[in-house]
Amino acid sequence: MKVLVINCGSSSLKFQLIDSESEKCLAKGLCERIGIEGSMITYAPEDGEKEKTVTPMPDHTEAIRLVLEALTNQKTGVVGSLDEIGAVGHRIVHGGEKFAQSVVIDAEVLAAVEACNDLAPLHNPANLIGIDACRKLMPNTPMVGVFDTAFHQTMPEEAYMYGLPYEYYQKYKIRRYGFHGTSHSYVSKRAAEVLGKPYEELKIIVCHLGNGASVSAVKGGKCVDTSMGLTPLEGLMMGTRSGDMDPAIIEFLAHKEGKGIDEIMAVLNKKSGVLGLSDNLSSDFRDLEDGYNAGDENAIRALKAYCYRVAKCIGSYVAAMNGVDVICFTAGIGENAPLVRTFVCSYLGYLGVELDQAANAKRGEDIAITTPQSRTTVMVIPTNEELAIARETVRLVK
Ligand code: AMP
Fold this sequence. Notes:
binds adenosine monophosphate; alpha/beta; Nucleotidyltransferase, domain 5; 2 domains; single chain; six-stranded mixed beta sheet
């Protein structure tokens, strides 16, 4: 079956068409600046040239219409007609406590997703708009929703509750939800597969280090803790997000800087993390690594603090699971920054971690980066959220 995977944001939309039998991506692309002047679509068929077209996209329905047109285009398309697309899989950011699994989308599901909008005001409404646009243009094609939060729903209460008045959980469902679940699930399963060991018997820590970053503890195939919380602001220091800090800083800064809550939150989301800590050098780890190698003190400060936080989080999950068998690195930084992996692993001597620097220098492979003698295995597993969504979609519509 050919599955169209859609990841819809408020002004952008990423897509991939995946053949579920071969698990190959047949074409992929991106619509940008939807509803804004200067919108454009980038389209890349599997073995063809990437093409970028600037064209008006007043809304998401028009964006999806252009995606479908590109996929069926006589010259560069990869399917003869839309009938060849057997299902659509949608990434949905927040499923609250309602969705511990992916679901076939119907009116009831849409209402339940909408009820979670408060928990992810920037993401869920955009996801719903994408689903709506697809349903308009492909009314007879089954659609599946795959939630970023679903994999983390197995966390025990002691891991997901905050030390706040219980009534806030009862009234507003304030608790840890966690994100990047599709990636944590895919990577932990894949690690077990590559090692040839039963998933159900392993204790795995996954470090998803991308622009957003989170760590999860997966014991016996179930998530038992994760570092992001009610929102994706909690946990690790990220590209531009602060991650954990003393909550009293918000009030302190508001007074000192004469700013409102919204402005402070914008600072914590967009101007903090390694960008802020490097005194605005960069949020991109390519720049930070270059800066580190050139002896730039801003880059050194940011990189060291970032890696220290990751190592500390790993330590807390070793405690949560009473041990660990495998630690996985994934996403943009986890897959591509050997320096970050080296720094993080330098804290893991107590786990008997021995890095194999030749393996650590490789890129784009599912690979163990520790020596055979290493007491704990550390791996790089490139994530593939789109493939995971396509697999879930096929599983549900078959
Ligand atoms: P993601 O959100 O998973 O797409 O990750 C994006 C981030 O990965 C970028 O902001 C970079 O910081 C980082 N990244 C991507 N490529 C490299 C690279 N070759 N070396 C170091 N960091 C990289």
